[in-house]
Amino acid sequence: MLFEKAIKLDSTFASAHLNLALAYRNLWNSIGSEESFKKAKDFSHKAMNKERLYIEAYYARHINRNYDKAFIIFEEMSKTYPKDKLAHAELGWMFWRKEIYNKAIKELEIALELDPEYGLAYNYLVDTYIEKGDFNSALKICSLYASKCPWDALPFDRLGDFYLAEGKLDKAMTNYKEAVKIKPEFSSNYKIAYVYAFQENYVEALKWIDYYFNRARSFGKRGEGL
């Protein structure tokens, strides 16, 4: 992993520890993530102001579970660094968590204006519309996400979820397989297995579970296929 290599070159590289912590979270490696967050915090005094604020915000959110503090920091950052797409995206997520959906949408749309191919903002925006109960808009945004970021497995996986919920198994399968084509170890594997099992094709279902288990990059991810 790139951030691990950076840390080998400089063990006090706070931003590398932060990004490694976030990467570990995505891999469900809670122990590695917590250790990296703490190292980022320990060395944050060596970071530039913006990086230090990110460390403070993520540490507050993920380690201390102090969402109010994280909200204040991200709100401050969105004003201090108005061209920073991540600050707007994370502020949007914080508004989403507070169930202030219109403000969440506004911040996420700002992030997408700054970068029309920003997957994180699309993903948060899909979640926001779902929580708002606007499933048509959620599906529309997810489709846009897939068209803007065809290299990203996540929007296809999420489209598969939408179609699966609607009982459109063929469309669900098509999108899940597209996600796996992009990223072979992606969790769409076990969803393909689920669709096959639902269709009573248990041989294919077991094959895809095994495929997922063998391709998964971490123990945490493998747990989904068991």
Mind explaining what this structure looks like?
This protein has helices spanning 2-9, 14-26, 30-42, 49-62, 67-80, 85-97, 101-114, 119-132, 135-148, 153-165, 169-182, 188-198, 202-215, 219-222. With 226 residues, it is mostly helical. It has a domain at 151-226: Tetratricopeptide repeat domain (Serine Threonine Protein Phosphatase 5, Tetratricopeptide repeat, Alpha Horseshoe), CATH 1.25.40.10. Mean pLDDT is 93; it is low at 222-226.
Number of DSSP helical runs: 14
**CATH C-level name of the domain at 151-226:** Mainly Alpha
Largest sheet at a glance? Answer: none
Category from helices, strands and their pairing? mainly alpha
End-to-end span in angstroms? 26 Å
The portion of residues forming beta strands comes to: under 5%
Short description:
The protein is mainly α and 226 residues long. It has a domain at 151-226: Tetratricopeptide repeat domain (Serine Threonine Protein Phosphatase 5, Tetratricopeptide repeat, Alpha Horseshoe), CATH 1.25.40. The chain has helices spanning 2-9, 14-26, 30-42, 49-62, 67-80, 85-97, 101-114, 119-132, 135-148, 153-165, 169-182, 188-198, 202-215, 219-222.
Blueprint of the fold:
Layout: H1 2-9, H2 14-26, H3 30-42, H4 49-62, H5 67-80, H6 85-97, H7 101-114, H8 119-132, H9 135-148, H10 153-165, H11 169-182, H12 188-198, H13 202-215, H14 219-222
